[in-house]
Amino acid sequence: MPLFDAPLTLKPKKPKPMIKTSDFFRQIRQEYDGFLRSQQQRFPSEETLKIDLHCHDYNSDVPDELWGRLLNLPETWLPTEQLAQTLSRNGADVITVTNHNNARSCWALKDKGEDILVGTEFTCHFPDSTLSIHVLTYGFTPTQEQQLNTLRHDIFDFVRFTRLHNLVTVLPHPLFFYTHDQKPDLSILEKFAVLFQRFEVLNGQRGYWQNLLTLRWVESLTPERIDYYAKKHQLDPFEFCENPYQKSMTGGSDDHNGIFAGRTGTLVHIPDLANRLKHTSRATLVLDAIREGRTTPYGELGEEEKLTVTFLDYFSQVAIHMQDPGLLRMMLHKGSLQDKLMCLGVSNAMQELKRHKYTLTFLKTFHESLSGTKPALLTSLGVSKEFKPALKVIKQIAKTQRKHPERFLETIREAIPELYQVVTHIFFDRLNQHLEKMDKGHLAELTTDELVRRFEIPTQFRALFSAEKSVAPKDITQLNLSKMLDELTFPALASGVVMGAAFTASQVIYNNREFLNELADTLGKAQHPQKALWLTDTFADHNGVSSVLQSTLIEIQNHDYPIDILTCHPDLAPQDHLVVVRPVSSFKVQSLGQQAFYIPDILELQRIFEQGGYDRIICSTELLMGAIALYLKKAFSVPAYFFMHTDWMEFIQRTTQLNHHESDRIRRLLRAFYAQFEGIFTLNKEHQAWLTSPEMDLPESNVKLTQHWADNVFTEQKPDLLTLNRHPILLYVGRLSEEKGVYDLIDVYQTVKRNNPQAELWFAGTGPAEVQLKAQLPDAQFLGWVDKKDLPALYQKTDLLLLPSRFDTFGCVVLEALSCGLPVVAYNCKGPKDIIEHNVSGYLVDNSEAMASTINQHLQNTDKHQSMRQAAYGQSQTYSSERIMHTLMADMKLTI
C-alpha cells in the first residue's frame, strides 16, 4: 500500500487578519504607547534635538555572538554614509555611530568635519562570571577609547573610569544580556541600579513587553531601594554615578542594517537652544544634556516584525557577501562541537545557495527595497507569472520606504507574511507536481515498510547532492536531492529564509522569558498570562483522537480554562477556545485511514501564539503539529508538553513487517522526539513504565499519568440497567482496521455462536477491514459510522462490548460503555486493564479463545449480568472530567 496519496489541491489565499488579540497584548501596548505620548509633551519642541543613541554600521565587524565569529561574519555591511543618510531622512538632528568596541566610524566622520557625537557600544564583563553586557559610552577621546577597551573586561573598573573622567554611559536593553547558558537572577538588576544612572527604556528591536518591563523597573528605583542594593552588594553608588538617585531614560533604534535608524531615539532638551547653537556645536549640547539627564525616548515600537525584517535583510546579505569561513579555522575556533557542526551546516547551505543566481537576485532585490530602491526593469521583465505577486510585494515595500516612510512599519507588518505565503504556495505547488511525476519506487509509491527501510543518510554527504550512486545501501537519498533542489530551489530557499528570520526574531526577543517572568512577578506589573495553546493535526476526523479533543474542547469551554485548541483545516469553523487556521497545502496518508494532513502557515502560527498571550504548548499529534510545537517552543522559549494518544511502536508491530533493527530505528526517532518536551502525558501505567524504561529513557518526573472521561451525552442520565436480551447482542465500536484486532472477532463470534446460536454481533464504525469482515461474518450487522449522540442508546440495547485491540492506550469506548451500564470484555493490556475491574465491571482476557469462553459463560448468568451493569456504571463515575483537567493543568504548571 502506498504511504502517500495524491496531494490535495488548495488555492492560495491571502493572509487575513483573523488573529484574536489577548487582553494582555492590548494592555501592554496601550500602557507603553501612553507613556510615549506623555513624553512627547515633556519638553518644548523648539528646545529639543533628536538623536538615535544606538545604531551601527560596517565597523561593527566582530560580533559578540559565537556563531558570527565562527562563520567569520560581521554584524553588518552597512556603509557609514548610508547610515548617516537614513538617520537624517528620519529626522535625527545629531548623528552618532555606536559600533561594538570601536569608534572608527565616528573618528572618520570627525576627520571629514562632521559634527558627530563620538560613541561606542562596549561589551563589558563581570569578573568571575560568564555574564556580559553592553554599555553605550559617549564623549571619549581616542586615548580613552583604548583605555576603555582594556578596562571593559571588568565592568566595575570600566564604570569607575567613566565616572572619574565625566564620560556619559547608558545601559542599553537592560533586560537583554549575554550569559553563555548561565541562568541569571534578579540580583544582576540590583547591581545595574547601582552602577548606572541612564537606561535605555525604548529599544527599537525589542517588543512592547520587554520595553514596558524595563520602564516599570526603572520607575521602581527609589533612593531607598538603591541604597538597599548598594549595601547588599557592597558597592558605593557615588563611585559609579554623579547622582545615582536621578535616573534618566533614553531610546535608540539598535539598528544594524540602516532600515529603522532614527525612527526610534532620544529627545534631548536644551534650554535656549537657538542662542546656544550660535556658540556651541549640536553634538556638545546633546552630550551635556544626556549627562544632566534631560532626555526622554521617542519613536515607534514594533514586535517581531522589526527584528524579522532585520534578520531577513541580514540573511540576504550573508547569502550575497559570505565567503567560505574555512573548515580548519572553524574547528580550531573556541566553542562547543555542537556549535561548530551547526555552523558547518549553515556554511554549506549558504555556499549551495550562492550557486542559485535566481535566488540571489531575489534576495538582493529584497535587500535593496528596504532602502527604497525599486526593482530594476530587467528584474521585473524576467520574473515568471507565478512570481509576480512576490515582486509586487517587494515593490510596495520599496515605494513605502521611498514615499511614505511613516507607514513603513505598517507595510512590512503586512508584506512579510504575504511574501512568505506567496513563495510557500509556489513551493508546495511545485512539490506536488514533482511528487505526481515520480516513477514507481520513489517516495509516492513507498509503503510504510519501504520508507522506514530506506530512511538513512549515507556517510558520504556528496551522495546527497550528486547524481552518482551512493556506495551505501539503497536509501531515501537516492531521490537525488540535487535534482529536486534545482526544481524547488527558489521557493524553498525564499520561504526558508523568511521563516528562519521570523524564528530568529522571536527567539532573540523571548530567549530570556523566564527572567522577564520573574521580574514581572517581583514588580507586580506587566505579568504575562498563563495560557496554553493545544496543537493537533486532527480534530474534525472520525477517529479517537478527534473525539477526545472535541470532548476536551467542551470541557474547556464550560469552565473557561486558560487553554485554546488549534488545528489546521480548510473549512472548519472556529469556536470559543478553538482556533482554526487555513492550510497552504495538504496530503493524505493511506496507512492512517486516508486521513488528510493540512500544512499551516508557520508565520501565522507565530503571530497567533504571540498575540494570543500564550506561554506554553501542549500537542496531541506527532507529525506536522509535533514539529511545529517544538518550533514554537524554541522560538518563544516556552515549555512544551506532549499528550500521547497513540502507541506508535505497537502500531508499527501490528501493521508492518519490519524486522527488529528497522522498528528500532522508529523507536530511536520517537525517543529523540519525546525527549524534547518538558512533560509527556500518557494514558496507562504500562505505557508510562515503557517511556521511563531504558528503551526510551525519559525522566520519571517528566512522564505524567492522565485519563479521559466520558462525554456528557453518556453521563447525563443514569442508564436503565436491563437484563440480558433474549437474543444476546455483542457490540464492537471503533475503527475497523487490523491494528484494532477486529479480525480476532471472526473466531470469537463463530465460537460464541456454537453455544449461543441466537447471539448477534454488531459493528459500529468503518475502516479498511470492513470488506473482509463482511465476507467472513455474513450474519453480523454493520451499522457504519454512528454519531456520538446516538451511541448511548446503542450501548444500552446491547449486552457486552468487545474490545479485541491491544493497540489502544486508553479505550474511550470502554469508559463510554461503562457509563451506560454496559460490561466490557477486553484484552488484558494497557488502557483497558487500568479501567476495567476484572469480573466486577467487565472481563480482562488474554486471547481470543479466552474472550469467546468468557462471553459464553457471561451469557448464561443473568444475575451476574445485572450486578455487572450496576458495577460498570459505578466504575464510570470515578472518571471526573473536572478532576482530570485540573490534574492535567497542574502537571503543566498552569494556574486555574
From TrEMBL:
Domain Glycosyl transferase family stretches? 716-873
User: What Gene3D superfamilies does the record tag this protein with?
Assistant: Glycogen Phosphorylase B, Metal-dependent hydrolases
Task: Show the taxonomic lineage.
Answer: Bacteria, Pseudomonadati, Pseudomonadota, Gammaproteobacteria, Oceanospirillales
> Any idea which UniProt keywords this protein has?
Transferase
Q: What species does this protein belong to?
A: Neptunomonas concharum
Recorded hits in InterPro entries, A to Z, give:
Glyco_trans_1, Glyco_trans_4-like_N, Glycosyltransferase_grp1, Pol/histidinol_Pase-like
Has keyword Phosphoprotein?
A: no
- Under what name is this protein listed? Glycosyltransferase
Question: What residue stretch is flagged as signal peptide?
Answer: none
Write down the Pfam families for this protein, in alphabetical order.
Glyco_transf_4 (PF13439), Glycos_transf_1 (PF00534)
Domain Glycosyltransferase subfamily 4-like N-terminal span(s) in chain numbering: 543-691
**For this protein, what is any one GO molecular function term?**
glycosyltransferase activity
